[in-house]
């Protein structure tokens, strides 16, 4: 059983999602069966993910050859601490947003729960696969689920942003395939470990092809993760999506970041000869520009959800900055920040949704309107999330930004990292103060709040479940940091990955 | 053969990108389809082009790389599904937004926005 562990996070949501289309669960009136089943699935995924995490942190990384086709020929799933950690994060987030959606979002359409399962399947698959073409397939799985979730219970602005999102991502998929063709033509393999083995011994013309392929892959991953010139779709799309879906989308940009770390550390890492770190010179300016644009966007956006979308862009810029440092310590810091920012932005989307529901027509825009009904609860949630996202102690954002700052070693790096991170944090605090004062302290006196909807207990449970992780991340900071350090050191140890695949015995 | 193949892929990519940059959804969908064809042909050629080469060992002296063919098959299926989705989505957008522009509304006519007497006084 234990050797089949890496495929379970893919099998369980796939089979579970398909089951939910069948009679005991299908149909408008059987939403209760779907809810129970979705909850059981989410809990079992979380348990499987934790089991896998424990297995790979205490033992060696696990390799799973699908159909028993051995590397370099078959499709390989590879569960190292990094993959297991991100699968756990995804399952945790999935459970939280499923609980939140029980409040009623899942009754707006019949296929909400199956689609969420397929989305989780695609994200888990992208984290676990070690084959670039298989990565493309899982990208398509998570994208088609996200297209449908985005227009779930359609609305005018959802359809409009979905058109942009779908067209952009279809063009992105075409570029992905062009890049894969180029790299396969140059290297003759699509297994990531095998590519890492072969990239240093290429001749002049094939090296150029591999360089072009790598650059094109960066465009694709940049589009997924919303790095600077490709970020325009994000704030509008995330603001239009239903709240639980927007919260789940918080991890989708991180899939792009994960792929950047995986591909450009393993394939184009230190051992790649002349192609070592080819993209790092581009990442520096892109990262700083991404932080700048995201921060300005957060300051200027007139609604809380739009602001949250721009803060996602800031977190992507921070992660790219940590990537550009290229040391295992910086990578470990980036993974800690990744876990924190995924959870914090997800909670921010949920809080923004609950605030919007209680403000009538003003929704979550920063205008003077009626008082919130659950002023105290929402205020505390908003305050904790804002402190975490801006990076104030004692919450996880402070620790996350601190470890990224500490990872900068040389004076040049320090100047760039310190300046961009600290200024963007300050501006984020300003933006949050403006948002908080308008929403919680300035309201028109005459309006009666008794007809505002209250908070459903499921919204309460889902939000507290995810919000509770933010103080836990800083309380258990030492053990989580040692986990991310283990993940980073195994990611940077490319020779070890090649040996686990059994490819080290020379050319096949 | 290589030259013809390269020109085909190039022209298809060019037309695809050109159409994707248009303002209405119909040309954009056609452009995405063309880009999909270009990508499939490109992927097919990544195992190098062979004449009279079977993809099975022992059937011919020269054999073609079977992996790109499998990749193309997968890419065709996925591309087909995606195009079907975008067609339905753009029909829905036409109904919901009341226009077939990608942005949901007609772009303002900039020539009318310029004052006719500009620069004369």
For the structure shown, list the relevant keywords.
heterodimer, A: two-stranded antiparallel ribbon, 2 strands, B: 121 residues, mainly alpha, Helix Hairpins, 4 helices
Write the layout of secondary structure elements.
The complex is a heterodimer of chains A (508) and B (121).
Chain A lengths: L7 H12 L11 H28 L3 E4 L10 E4 L1 H21 L10 H17 L3 H19 L5 H32 L4 H7 L5 H22 L8 H7 L2 H7 L2 H16 L12 H21 L3 H22 L2 H30 L17 H16 L5 H12 L3 H31 L15 H19 L1 H16 L1 H7 L8
Antiparallel strand pairs in A: 1-2
Chain B lengths: L1 H19 L4 H21 L20 H32 L12 H4 L8
Helix pairs in contact in B: 1-2, 2-3
Describe the protein's architecture and organization.
The complex is a heterodimer of chains A (508) and B (121). With 508 residues, chain A is an all-alpha fold. Chain A has a domain at 281-475. Chain A has helices at 8-19, 31-58, 81-101, 112-128, 132-150, 156-187, 192-198, 204-225, 234-240, 243-249, 252-267, 280-300, 304-325, 328-357, 375-390, 396-407, 411-441, 457-475, 477-492, 494-500, and strands spanning 62-65, 76-79. Chain A has a two-stranded antiparallel ribbon. In chain A, helix 3 packs antiparallel against helix 4 and helix 9 packs across helix 13 (304-325). Chain B is elongated, with a radius of gyration of 22 Å. In chain B, helix 1 (2-20) packs antiparallel against helix 2 and helix 2 runs antiparallel to helix 3 (66-97). Chain B is mostly helical and 121 residues long. Chain B has helices at 2-20, 25-45, 66-97, 110-113. The relative contact order of chain B is 0.12. Helices cover 63% and strands 0% of the residues of chain B. Chain B has a single domain (2-103), classed as Helix Hairpins. The A-B interface holds A 133, 137, 140, 144, 147, 151, 154, 156, 159-160, 162-164, 166-167, 170-171, 173-174, 177-178, 180-182, 184-185, 190 and B 16, 20, 25, 28, 32, 35-36, 38-40, 42-43, 45-48, 67-68, 71, 74-75, 78-79, 81-82, 85-86, 89-90, 92-93, 96-97, 102-104.
């Amino acid at each position: 059983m234990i050797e089949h562990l890496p495929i379970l996070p893919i099998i369980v949501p796939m089979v579970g999602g398909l089951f939910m289309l069948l009679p005991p669960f299908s149909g408008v009136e059987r939403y209760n069966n779907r809810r129970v089943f979705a909850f059981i699935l989410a809990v079992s995924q979380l348990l499987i993910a934790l089991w896998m995490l424990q297995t790979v942190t205490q033992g060696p990384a696990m390799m799973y050859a699908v159909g028993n086709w051995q590397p370099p020929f078959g499709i390989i799933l590879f569960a190292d601490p990094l993959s297991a950690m991100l699968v756990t994060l995804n399952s945790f987030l999935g459970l939280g947003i499923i609980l939140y959606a029980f409040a009623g979002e899942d009754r707006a359409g019949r296929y909400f729960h199956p689609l969420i399962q397929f989305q989780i399947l695609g994200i888990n698959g992208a984290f676990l696969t070690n084959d670039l073409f298989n990565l493309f397939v899982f990208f398509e799985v998570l994208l088609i689920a996200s297209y449908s979730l985005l227009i779930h219970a359609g609305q005018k602005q959802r359809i409009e942003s979905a058109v942009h999102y779908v067209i952009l991502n279809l063009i992105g998929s075409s570029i992905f395939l062009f890049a894969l063709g180029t790299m396969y033509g140059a290297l003759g393999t699509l297994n990531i470990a095998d590519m890492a083995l072969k990239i240093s011994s290429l001749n002049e013309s094939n090296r150029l092809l591999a360089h072009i392929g790598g650059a094109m892959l960066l465009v694709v991953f940049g589009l997924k993760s919303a790095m600077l010139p490709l970020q325009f779709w994000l704030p509008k799309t995330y603001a239009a999506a239903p709240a639980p879906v927007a919260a789940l989308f918080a991890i989708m940009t991180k899939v792009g970041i994960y792929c950047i770390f995986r591909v450009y550390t393993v394939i184009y890492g230190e051992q790649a000869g002349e192609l070592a770190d080819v993209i790092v010179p581009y990442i520096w300016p892109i990262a700083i520009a991404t932080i700048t644009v995201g921060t300005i966007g957060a300051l200027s956006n007139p609604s809380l959800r739009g602001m949250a979308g721009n803060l996602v862009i800031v977190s992507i810029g921070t992660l790219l900055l940590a990537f550009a440092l290229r040391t295992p310590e910086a990578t470990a810091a980036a993974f800690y920040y990744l876990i924190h920012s995924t959870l914090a932005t997800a909670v921010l989307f949920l809080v923004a949704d609950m605030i919007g529901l209680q403000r009538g027509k003003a929704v979550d825009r920063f205008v003077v309107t009626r008082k919130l009904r659950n002023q105290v609860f929402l205020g505390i949630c908003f305050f904790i999330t804002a402190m975490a996202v801006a990076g104030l102690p004692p919450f996880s954002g402070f620790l996350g930004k601190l470890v990224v700052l500490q990872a900068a070693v040389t004076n040049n790096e320090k100047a760039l990292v310190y300046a961009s991170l600290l200024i963007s944090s300050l501006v984020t605090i300003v933006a949050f103060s403006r948002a908080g004062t308008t929403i919680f302290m300035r309201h028109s006196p005459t309006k009666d709040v008794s007809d505002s909807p209250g908070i459903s207990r499921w919204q309460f449970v889902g939000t507290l479940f995810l919000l509770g992780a933010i103080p836990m991340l800083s309380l258990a900071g030492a053990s989580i940091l040692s986990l991310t350090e283990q993940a980073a050191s195994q990611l940077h140890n490319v020779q070890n990955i090649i040996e686990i695949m059994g490819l080290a015995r020379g050319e096949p | 053969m290589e030259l013809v193949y390269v020109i085909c892929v190039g022209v298809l990519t060019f037309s695809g990108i050109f159409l994707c940059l248009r303002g209405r959804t119909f040309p954009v969908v056609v452009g995405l389809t063309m880009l999909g064809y270009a990508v499939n042909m490109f992927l097919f050629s990544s195992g190098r082009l062979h004449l009279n080469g079977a993809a099975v060992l022992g059937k011919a002296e020269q054999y073609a790389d079977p992996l790109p063919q499998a990749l193309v098959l997968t890419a065709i299926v996925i591309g087909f599904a995606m195009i079907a989705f975008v067609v339905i989505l753009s029909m829905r957008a036409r109904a919901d937004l009341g226009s077939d522009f990608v942005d949901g509304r007609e772009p303002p006519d900039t020539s009318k926005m310029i004052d006719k007497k500009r620069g004369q006084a």
